[in-house]
Amino acid sequence: MADSYGLNPFIRQVWALSDRKGGVLPVISVDGWVCIMNSYPESDGIEFGYPDELIQFDEDMKPCHPWIECTVHRKDREHAIRVREYLDELYRPAVIKNGKKFPSPWQTCPKRMLRHKSQIQAIRISYGLSGLFEPDEAERLLENQMGEAVPDLREPESKLEQTAGKKVKEKTGLVSSEPDVLDDTLAEIAGELLPAKAITGDEVPEPNGLEPQVVSFIEQIVERARGTGAFTAAQGFAQERFKKDGNALNYCLFRLDVVQAESAKQSV
Fold first, then answer.
1. By C-alpha distance, which of 106, 174, 167 is closest to 135?
2. Which of 34, 110, 121, 122 has a beta carbon 3.0–4.6 Å from 64's, enabling a disulfide?
3. What predicted TM-score, i.e. pTM, was given to this entire model?
């Protein structure tokens, strides 16, 4: 598929996720959708429109326009293609897990998320693209299959702090989105982490025996960690989520170690 649309998986324009039946969901980032659009010689640009009004659905989200419209122009069409996406149909509240709130981009940058939604849908309709998914769309599908969501690993609203002579207690407020700060803070939120250890060849965990939807869920965690750099937080989330499933936990931690090592090499 990457070759068909001229996309580069190494710069995250396209990747694949497995669904609960063992099938594959081709996921294309917003940069990938723009790349596809620009590959057509008929492409003649896009523009956006939105009202001055700003609304909020809850106290967690920043104010956002109630809708954003994307207009795609084609040189071979007399009329432009306009697609309007509405916030009330797409907004996703922050995930709450074990009393902790995990804001997602729908809380921290809703305008951008809504703009991406309208842009991708407009490109999809304008060029007759089907069978392709954008990240938010793929996550919703897999979350419906799993029955739960992967929290955004960057900006939790609840932060745990250690107090003298007392147990860890909860403190409300958004934390910094800087990776080095997040790793420390989210490690506290996640709880005690498994100590890091070297994995020998005969100890490498395999996904054998895991349900396809569990493997897909693990890959979501891994990809979210790759995109945010919050590997420590992802380890903590995995340990809490899979504390009753040793095979899934070991495999998830192994995959996180592998991807973290790959990311470290790329940054050198």
1. 106
2. 110
3. 0.57
